[in-house]
Design a protein that fits this description.
By secondary structure, the chain is mainly beta. It contains two helices and eight strands, in the order E-E-E-H-E-E-H-E-E-E.
Amino acid sequence: MAVSPITSHVLDAARGTPAQGVPISISYAPTSEIASSGQNSVIGRGVTNSDGRCPLLLDSEYVLKPGVYTVHFDTKTYFALHGEKSFYPFVDVTFEIDQAAPHYHIPLNLAPFSYTTYRGS
């Protein structure tokens, strides 16, 4: 099965389960200056599945370019599905690549008052 060149996996640390139903979007800007000015272009969208993954965030044929990417997690929507409020209504994970690799994995460990992320494999 073909996979998006950028994937994510969201885990609900408070429940100890995958976070199904988190809307995710990804945007691109060619430079950090453009990204910080808010002139990013949304290049993909998806929602996490029952395993907390979003394997088709981008088309598998999408060619990554050097630049700044932001993965936007709509955590408010996710916690509202569970009747909870979240201190963080969204989480943006912004990273820069200078040479495109075949795949980048951006995990998010999530709780109502906390989150962590790292570059996965």
